[in-house]
Amino acid sequence: MVPPHIQPGDLIGIVSPSGSFERERLRPGLSYLRNRGFRVRVGSAVYDRDRYLAGQDADRAKDLNAMFADPEVRAVFAARGGFGAARVLEFLDYEAIRSDPKPLTGFSDTTALQLGIYGRTGMVSYSGVTLCGDVTASGIPEVTETSLWDALVRGRFDEMAGVAALRGRAAEGTLLGGCLSVIASLVGTGYLPDTSGALLFLEDVNEAPYRVDRMLTQLRMAGVFDRVAGVVFGQFKDCEPEREEEGTVDNVLRDFSTSVTAPVFWGLPYGHGEGRRVLPIGLRAAVDGSRGSLIVEADR
């Protein structure tokens, strides 16, 4: 289920399903959207704070439900990541989301929200941008900006170069994925979609190699990789070992590639580092290890 494309003049709803933040952090993102010609509506709970959360679970979910229930709102952006998106999944009105699908854009912790919604409704969403995390007073990184609006306005995705094979030569399937630690946290909850036939993309930040290993092992033992079409690793930013003898994330990923039967690739320009591209959760894509690229099918 692919949401309709958006155009300047459309109303974009802003929600904060995860962490709290200072009001000033969102201002550049709101100005950016307005300068692109969009109208914006900020959810009533966006600036709330409950410890590390942007308000109570029920209030964050109420904002999301209101944006999807309002026919005037044509897209929804997450203000930031952090933690908390998984906590709203049980409060969402999935029938309202299914009835009026809209481009939902977020990143990092938004993985929980996007995968949960995909699993319950089949709605395609877009992973790679949060307003507080990616838009500053000087703008947004050019490659990310181009990728974002190509996806939301044109339904187009340029070829992503730099992908190399660790196991196998090629793979094709439905793109599912996001932040590894968030995906691992969804195992056993009922909100992790079926990964059969999926091209599963994974990245993370600030995780030591042994923790990356632990999460991949958890997913493997839970059967998540049993029927995937392939696994594609993106950036693992600031995932350095605590001691040199522990090895690196590269060691972990190479070792992982020998423990599964599916094709495995790395080098996807997606993650918490520079040069991030926006990826659609729920569209089909193909990886060609010989060509060194990932190609997403156009959404129409």
Biggest pleated sheet: 8 strands, mixed
For the termini, the CA-CA separation is 11 Å
Query: What is the fold named in CATH at topology level of the largest domain?
Result: Rossmann fold
Shape: globular
Number of distinct helices: 9
Rg of Cα set: 18 Å
H/E order of the elements? Answer: EHEHEHEHEHHEEEHEHEHEEEE
Strand runs, count? 14
Spans of at least 5 consecutive residues whose pLDDT stays below 50 are none
How many structural domains are formed by the residues? Answer: 2
What is the CATH homology-level superfamily of the largest domain? Murein tetrapeptidase LD-carboxypeptidase, N-terminal domain
Query: How much strand content do the residues show?
Result: 15-25%
Going by CATH, the architecture of the largest domain would be: 3-Layer(aba) Sandwich
From the helix content, strand content and strand pairing, which structural class follows? alpha/beta
Spatial order of the strands in the main sheet?
Answer: 6-14-13-8-9-10-11-7
Share of residues in helices:
25-40%
User: CATH class of the largest domain, anyone?
Assistant: Alpha Beta
Mean pLDDT over the full residue set = 96
